[in-house]
Amino acid sequence: MRKAMHFFSKSQFRSMMMLGLVGISNITAVQADGPGKVQDGLQVSDSDWPWWRGPHRNGEAASNQSPPVAWDDSTNVAWKTAIPGRGYGSVCLHGDKAFLLTSDESSGSQSVLCLDRQTGKVLWTKVVHAQGGMRKNAKSTSASSTPACDGSNLFVCFPNQDGLWVSALDLAGSIVWQKKISAYVEHQGFGSSPALYQSLVIAASDNKAGGVIVGLDRKTGETVWQHDRPKMPNYPSPILIHAFGKDQMIMTGCDLVTSLDPMTGKTNWQTAGATTECVTSTLTDGQRIFTSGGYPRNHMSAVTADGSSKLVWENDVRLYVPSPLFRNGTLYAVLDAGIAAAWDSATGKELWRQRLGGTFSSSPILVGENIYATNEVGETFIYKADPKGYQLVGKNQLGGEVFATPVLCNSKIYYRCSREVDGKRQEFLYCLASGAKQ
Predict the structure, then answer these.
(1) CA distance 272 to 437
(2) In this structure, what are the phi and psi dihedrals at residue 19, rounded to the nearest 5 degrees?
(3) Which of 124, 304, 322, 401 is deepest in the core (most CB within 10 A)?
(4) Residue 247, by phi and psi: left (phi above 0), alpha (psi -120 to 50) or beta?
(5) What is the pTM (predicted TM-score) of this model?
(6) What stretches of 24-139 show up as alpha helix (H) in DSSP?
(7) How far apart are CA 262 and CA 197, in angstroms?
(8) Confidence class of residue 438 from pLDDT cuts 50, 70 and 90?
C-alpha cells in the first residue's frame, strides 16, 4: 500500500500561501479550452448512467435524447415500483438493470436492489449489512449514496457499526469483497458515492474520527493507496476531472481544496479555501475547478486547476447541497433555498437569478439546452440553460418528498420519490417516458 499523508492546518496553509509555497504540482501548464475527458479506462454507453452525476461526472446527460417535459402520477409513466425502506441515493443504470440502495430503519439493515429497466420488476435484493446502519437527521438515511458499476461489479458505500464500508457485488447480487476503510463518527449523515478509475474504486470517509480517501483494487478490495484527512465532518463524493492535461481527483471541504493523482493518491496540489463542511460535487471548465460550501460560512469559488492554487473569484452564495452545472462558459445552479441562478464561470459575475420556490436537496441535471431541477416536495422545474435569463419550459408535480437526484438516460427519467399510502410513507421508483402508458 502506498500511503499519502498531505494535510496541514488552515493557519499553516495561509502562511504557506503568503510565502508562495502552496501548489505541490506536477501538472503541465498547458492552455485549457474546456473540460477534457477523464482517461478512466472504462467504456460507458450513452444509454447507461454508471455512477453519481452520470457518465461525465458533472450532471450532464446525453444531449441526443428527448425525455418528457410533462408528467404526473398517471401521465408519461412507463412503470413505477414500490421500494421498501428508505434511501436518498440516485439510481445507477447498466445494460438492462437499474441498481439502488435502501435501508430498513427498524432493523438497521442496508441493501442493494436490482430492477429490470424495461419493466421495473425487482430482479433481486441483497442485504449487504443485516444491522448497524447509521442515520443522523431527517435529511439523511443510512442508504444515501449512489452505486457505481464497471460492467462486471457494483460498488457501494455504507456507514455501518461506527465504520465506513465499501463493498463489491457481482451483477447477480453476490458479495465479492467488503472492506472497512475507516472509523466513522456520523455528524449530519453520509452520502458520499464511490468513483471508478482504471483498476481502482475510490471512496472518501471524511469525519470527526479522522477521515481517509482510499484507492482500492476493484477485483480484490486491497488498499492500493490511502490519503489521510483532517478530523472534520464533510460530505462530498470524490470527483474525477481532466484539467491542464492531467486526470485529477478533486475533494473539497475540511477547509481544503485537494487534488490527488487518482492512480497513486499523491498530492497534485492542495490549498486552503473551501469551508469545513461541503456537499456539492466539483466541476471544471478545463482551467478552473468550482467549489461551494455551507458551514461555517456560505461560499462559491473558482480555483485554478494548474497547481498554482490561485483563487480566481469567490462569493457568499449558499449553494450547499445541490451540485452545480457547467455549459459553454456559464455555471448554473439551484440554491438550497429554491433560487435558480447563473454565473459567468471565468469571473463569477451573476448573470441572473429566479425564485422557483421550495427547498432543494437533489441536484439539477442538464440535457441539451434544458435543466431539470426537483425540489423536496416533488416539483420539477424545467428551464433553459441560457446565460441571458430564466426561461421556463415546464413544471410538474410527482410524489410528496424527493431527496434523490433523478437520472435522465435514454430518453427516460428514473425518479425516486415517496408519498403517503394508507397513512404510511412509501418510496417509489418511477420510469417516465414520453407517450408511455402503464
Answers:
(1) 52
(2) -85, -5
(3) 322
(4) beta
(5) 0.92
(6) none
(7) 7
(8) confident
